[in-house]
Structure formats: structure tokens, C-alpha cells
Amino acid sequence: MRLVIQRVNKAKVEAQKRVVGEIDKGLFVLLGIGEADTRKNAEEIVRKLLKLRVMADSNDKMNLDIKEAGGSLLVVSQFTLYADMSRGNRPSFIKAAKPEIARDLYKYFISLLVEAGVYVQTGEFGEYMNINLELDGPVTILMTNDPPDGGQS
User: Fold this and answer.
1) Would residue 80 show up in a list of annotated catalytic residues for this protein?
2) What does pLDDT average to over the chain?
3) CATH architecture of 2-144
4) Is the pLDDT of residue 148 over 90?
5) Closest Cα to residue 81, out of 14, 26, 145?
6) Which one of the listed residues 79, 109, 121, 122 is annotated catalytic?
């Protein structure tokens, strides 16, 4: 799995001209699911995400995780995080999970966050979305738990 995590003051996702997810202070997370990903991958990366200390403390130091800061998460599925540009200029997405598998893992990922007691909003899986962010910092983190062989096994 691959995550792009951005600390935000606010974030909003619209699909089909309606707001489907919106948060104030917290983390905006793009979630890419690869063809080799499993529930175990989701559990591992959720643990890392929940422990990520990028939220500001009272001294404006990146010292708090999302729960300690009382922040929210807005999670959007993003298969293009698995773009392969090794040949030519048009990206290939063959390393991304098939939609039916990705949808189940996306829902599982969200359920793990909710079970952990974090307020979570989402985008709409498989839909074209407009995303508005007010970045805080900016702070952007790339997180992955891809197999060492890049999912080729």
C-alpha cells in the first residue's frame, strides 16, 4: 500500500457536485492499493499512520499523532499512486489492485481507523472527485509497505 499524507487545516471532497467528505484540522490521506496488497498490509500501514507524529503540539513542534491532536482523517482511494512510468510517457496502472479487490481493502482500511477511535471521512471510491485542501505547514509524507520486490512476487 502507498499513502500520501498531508497535514491540513481543512479538506473537502466533492463527487457528482455534492460534498462526500469534509474535515477541519487533521490529515488528508491518498490511499493506493497494489495488486499484491492484503488485509495484513492494511493493518500494518494503519498502525504506522496512527502513530505518525506530524501534528503540532502546544510549542508548534511535530510531536503528536492524530488522536493526541484530536484531529480527523479524510481518506481518498488513489490507484494512480501505482503509476508505472518505466516505459514511455503514458503511465501504466497494471500494478494497482483490481477495483473489486481495492474497494474491499479500502473499506477495511477505513474500518480499522474507525475502530481505533479516529473521526474519518472518505471520498467516493471509483468516482471522479474534486478535492480542496488548505495545507498546514506544508507537511507531506509518503508512506509505503510495498514488498521489497515492488509487488512482483
Assistant:
1) yes
2) 95
3) 3-Layer(bba) Sandwich (3.50)
4) no
5) 145
6) 79
What distance in Å separates the CA atoms of residue 151 and residue 48, rounded to the nearest whole number? 20
**Model confidence pLDDT, tens digit, residues 63-99:** 999 999 999 999 999 999 999 999 989 999 999 999 9
Check if 38 is active-site: no
Backbone angles phi, psi at 19, to 5 degrees: -75, 125
The residue among 77, 96, 103 whose CA lies nearest residue 146 is: 96
| pLDDT over 70 (residue 61) | yes
- Residue 106, pLDDT above cutoff 90: yes
> Is 125 one of the catalytic residues?
no
Catalytic position from the list 16, 38, 80, 140? 80
Closest CA to 105 of 14, 3, 153, 34: 34
Annotated catalytic residue, options 78, 109, 121, 122: 78
What residues does each domain of the chain span?
A: 2-144
Answer yes or no: is pLDDT of 147 > 80. Answer: no
Secondary structure (3-state) at 35 = coil
If we measure between CA atoms, which residue out of 38, 124, 131, 34 comes closest to residue 81? 34
